[in-house]
Structures are given as C-alpha cells and as structure tokens.
C-alpha cells in the first residue's frame, strides 16, 4: 500500500520559541500564529514494506542517522511493533539546505500520510497534535491560510493544537530573501532549549507572546496593516533579542539580514509600501506584503548583496492526501 501527502510550510507572524515539555510530547510554552505558504511544499510518499527497518529518501537520496531516527519515532506514533515498516520518499519544492521551515511542511506531510497508510481516520485536530510531536511548527501546517496554535495547559499536550482562522480574509503575499547561510546555524529545537535555560529575557518573551497574539488577530480582522506590521516585526525582534541574550548568545542574523530589514523598513516608512519583515532561526528574511506590491518588494530585496534567491509565495492550502 502507498499513499502520498502534500503539506506547505508556514511562517509565524507571532512566534513559537520555548517548550513547556521537551519530551517526545513536544509541547510549546505559548501559542503562535502563522501563514501557510504555497511556494514551500513538501510531498511525502509512504509505501508499506516488508523490510526490517524504515527507509528514508530525500529527493531520491537515501538518508540515515538522526533524520531517519526522527522519522521512525514519528511513524511509531501511528503503528505497533508488528505493523509493517515504511519506505518514505520525500521532496521539497524549495532548497532544503536553505533551512526554510522544512520541518513544518515535512512533519505535516509525514503525519497526514502516516495516518492514512496505517489505517487511521484522525480528525484535523488530532493530526495537528500528532504533527506537533514531530515539530511544533508542523502542527500549524495541517491547516491552510492563517493558523492559530494553542499553547494549552494540560500535561498530556492534548490542548496544544492549531486551528484555522477562516474568518480572517487578509490577503498577504510573502517575498523571501534567501541569504547565504553561515557556518551551520544552531537549529530551532536546540536554540530554543538554550534560550529557555539561559536567557534572562525568556519569561518576559513568553508574556509578550499572548499580548502579540491578541494584537495581531485584531489587526488582521480590522485590515489594519500598520498595527500588524509593528506587531510582527516587534515579535520577531523580541524572539531574536531573547535568543541573543542567552549565554553564549545565539545570533541568527547575518549582514544580509540587517540590510534586508533596513530595505523593508525604508520601503514602508519612506515609500509608503505596505510591507513588513519576519525572520526565523536563520539569516533569511521573509517580507509580507499586499499582492499588488510583490514586484516592488522582490526587486528591492533582490538588489541586496548576499541575497542568493528570491522566492515569492501566496498563502497555501491545508495539508492533504493526493
Ligand atoms: C523560529 O517547530 O522547528 O520557526 O518543535 O523543536 O521542531 P521544534 O521547533 P520548530 O521551531 C520553529 C521556530 C521558529 C518560529 C515558529 O515557526 O513559530
């Protein structure tokens, strides 16, 4: 038996950075709010097999080690020890090496495919909870458009799931400035653990997230671009300030990142373009803008030295079987 699922990555407007349970339950300390992006897609096929172990292929190359163990641990959430093993073939529509939210689309696609191939009929909420255990941000990629992650309070993590926000009709497009990555960045899992353990700013950051979640949702509902822009940029900079304040400090920005930040702000403040930035655990800058301003934003970002690629994206659809 073989099934295939597709999921889009997402970029958070209000970010997840900290876990209240870092066991295999992987429960966030706070909520988050994201936009699913059409251009960043993962396609994952699972074939049940009589091999003694799972096999993993990324873009047709066999992958072993830590990545394979993480996939096996995830598949184990859907099967018993006597169920058949799996051959997992996965590919991304975007450069995996660029470190762009591939765990979000990857674990969302894997969750949807694994649920189907092992004969379950999980609800979307259950799929979101299961995807979260693979990667926190993947819980949001179960849904299209805007998704709100609930941090929850229960120790079993059953109230930590994402849900769609269909009432929000705020069309945003993303223009991603892919920056040359430095020597291997510290991954989000490790980065947020180190921040949680050593940053004096971590508690204020967690408190800020609940306020930003309210502000961002109200701004999206009222089509209030300026309030949204200030909230999203502020939330991103606060997350990074928190990571930078850990010891030793984690710095994801490169010179190119700072140039792109200033380009986005210049477009908005001096040229009246509705655009704002956000940045995840790497040097790339995601600019969000109205559909009518995509070309202007893409042109400005492409001229920055160190920007190696521009990816344009509309909002994406929910994860699904093909
Ligand atoms: C900066 O979801 O990759 O992109 O749960 O450990 O897999 P794990 O972390 P992950 O963290 C994402 C961090 C972020 C912000 C966000 O997407 O909300």
Task: Characterize the structure shown.
With 322 residues, this protein is α+β, with helices and mostly antiparallel strands. The chain contains 8 helices and 14 strands. The strands form 3 sheets. Strands 1, 4, 5, 6, 7, 8, 9 and 14 form an 8-stranded mixed β-sheet that branches. Strand 11 and strand 12 form a beta hairpin. Helix 2 crosses helix 3 and helix 5 packs antiparallel against helix 6. The radius of gyration is 19 Å and the shape is globular. The relative contact order is 0.19. The model has no long low-confidence stretch (mean pLDDT 96). The structure holds ligand DP6. Ligand DP6 binds next to helix 4.
Per-chain topology:
Blueprint: E1 2-14, E2 19-21, E3 27-28, E4 32-49, E5 55-58, E6 61-63, H1 66-75, E7 85-92, H2 102-117, H3 124-134, E8 146-149, E9 162-164, E10 173-179, H4 188-198, H5 202-221, H6 225-244, H7 255-271, E11 275-278, E12 285-289, H8 294-302, E13 307-313, E14 320-321
Parallel strand pairs: 5-7
Antiparallel strand pairs: 1-4, 1-14, 2-3, 4-7, 4-8, 5-6, 8-9, 10-12, 10-13, 11-12
Helix pairs in contact: 2-3, 5-6
The chain binds ligand DP6.
The site of ligand DP6 has 14 residues, from α4.
């Amino acid at each position: 038996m073989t099934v295939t699922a597709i999921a889009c990555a997402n970029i958070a407007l209000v970010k997840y950075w900290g876990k209240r349970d870092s066991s295999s339950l992987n429960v966030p300390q706070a909520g988050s709010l994201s936009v699913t992006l059409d251009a960043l897609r993962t396609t994952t096929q699972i074939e049940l097999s009589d091999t003694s172990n799972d096999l993993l292929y990324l873009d047709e190359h066999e992958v072993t080690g830590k990545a394979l163990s993480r996939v096996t641990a995830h598949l184990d959430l859907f099967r018993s020890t006597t169920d058949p093993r799996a051959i997992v073939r996965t590919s991304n529509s975007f450069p995996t090496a660029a470190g762009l939210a591939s765990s979000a689309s990857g674990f969302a696609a894997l969750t949807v495919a694994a649920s189907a191939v092992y004969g379950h009929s999980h609800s979307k909420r259950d799929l979101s909870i299961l995807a979260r255990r693979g990667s926190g941000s993947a819980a949001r990629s179960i849904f299209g458009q805007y998704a709100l992650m609930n941090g929850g309070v229960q120790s079993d993590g059953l109230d930590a799931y994402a849900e769609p926000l269909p009432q929000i009709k705020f069309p945003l497009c993303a223009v991603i400035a892919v920056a040359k990555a430095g020597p291997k960045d510290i991954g989000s899992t490790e980065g947020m653990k180190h921040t949680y353990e050593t940053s004096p700013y971590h508690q204020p950051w967690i408190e800020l997230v609940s306020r930003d979640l309210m502000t961002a949702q109200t701004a999206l509902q009222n089509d209030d671009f300026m309030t949204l822009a200030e909230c999203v940029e502020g939330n991103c900079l606060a997350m990074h300030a928190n990571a930078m304040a850990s010891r030793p400090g984690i710095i994801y920005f490169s010179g190119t990142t700072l140039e792109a930040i200033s380009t986005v702000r210049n477009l908005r403040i001096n040229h009246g373009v509705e655009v704002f930035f956000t940045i995840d655990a790497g040097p790339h800058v995601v600019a969000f803008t109205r559909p009518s301003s995509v070309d202007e934003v893409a042109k400005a970002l492409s001229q920055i030295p160190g920007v190696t690629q521009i990816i344009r994206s509309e909002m994406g659809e929910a994860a699904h079987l093909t």
